Automatic annotation (TrEMBL):
<keyword id="KW-0560">Oxidoreductase</keyword>
<dbReference type="InterPro" id="IPR050982">
    <property type="entry name" value="Auxin_biosynth/cation_transpt"/>
</dbReference>
<dbReference type="InterPro" id="IPR036188">
    <property type="entry name" value="FAD/NAD-bd_sf"/>
</dbReference>
<dbReference type="Pfam" id="PF13738">
    <property type="entry name" value="Pyr_redox_3"/>
</dbReference>
<protein>
    <submittedName>
        <fullName>MSMEG_0569 family flavin-dependent oxidoreductase</fullName>
    </submittedName>
</protein>
<dbReference type="InterPro" id="IPR024000">
    <property type="entry name" value="CHP04046_FMN-dependent"/>
</dbReference>
Amino acid sequence: MSLAGGHRAVAVVGGGQAGLSMSWYLRQRAVDHVVIERERVGHEWRERRWDSFCLVTPNWQCRLPGYAYAGDDPDGFMPGPEVAGFLEKYAASFDPPLVEGVEVTRLRRTAGGVFELVTTAGLTTADQVVVATGPYHVPAVPRIAERLPTGLVQVHSSQYRNPAQLPEGPVLVVGTGQSGCQIAEDLHLAGRRVHLAVGSAPRAARRYRGRDTLAWLDEMGHYDRGIDEFADADAVRLRANHYMTGRDGGRDIDLRAFAVQGMRLHGRLRGVDGATVSFDGDLAANLDGADAVADGIKDAIDRYIDQAGIVAPAEARYEPVWVPETTGGVLDLAAAGVSAVVWATGFHRDHRWIEVPVFDGRGYPTHERGVTGCPGLYFLGLPWQWTWGSGRFAGVARDAAYLSERIAAARRRRFTDEVSWLAGTPTETYPDVEWWAAA
């Protein structure tokens, strides 16, 4: 469909699960809109994941407005290409007004309250805008990487595909969020010697007392808790995801067991001096902390089982199979034969194209359930935007439904004001014009 030169009631930027969910609700409300996707539907799952990647959340949690996983393995974990296909089928199920291969390079708001979107296909305007581009924009590689030897191959987790992509020899993986642990496992299973810089990310058991841990937590209502129920919302939003895997039907990721099998675990990466890297002395504390979180989740499940009178098999608690003998230390990359470094250090947000003052000092959009202080501008698909599932298939529908109600209400107010103005009895000055003047 054509984009340049047109005006829409709503422009949705981003055609992933968040943007498509938003489109579904706007379609239900017969709201004129367009969805602008920089690549093509499913691009992130198809192009920015490694070959053995699969979801950590079970397939039954893949549910979007008007559409849900209907395959024969609800308790399994879809690999990346299947996730991309799931999204493509979702889009085909309701044929959203989607424009693919077009990037929004600038978003501004005029004094008259209209949003202008400069795109690679020309200029378009909208009364309201939903930013559904997620939080994972620019690979975050620490500046310390510049100090490593020039001959060392370095890739970010978003660029890693498989062990054969890297030169022969040991590999240093930095970071133990979900990506770092799963990539370290991928290399380890391929027979590569792995050095892993372990951070403070928590872990969770894949299964406990006869069920997937996430199934227990879902039944317990954990994923329905709003961010306002937590004492420190900012801290919750910045939490690292628990590491586990859906590979081979799903299992725990036990870094201690990897160590027994020959993986070298280190503390957090601290410094680089030529071919020598140094690590903090926090390895034991980080492993203990991850285990404590996993045990805390099990404690909550135990309490729920007891209170609800559920019959579930008993299960012994995890016993550490390995304990580090030393803390801190250095690694001579050349002497160890390390040929590559994988930076599993996350992503930075990049909202520089949004020229509207709705960000805090860290560049995070200030919002209340996705509604910003700028009338007509919304965010969707952010981690913990409202619940744990906000940035995932499991909970984005609830956020999209909420925002669609706000968008529809704003349209009704605008229509009422315009009718009053045409009748010669304006009820009030447009509040959005006043906001822009104050900004």
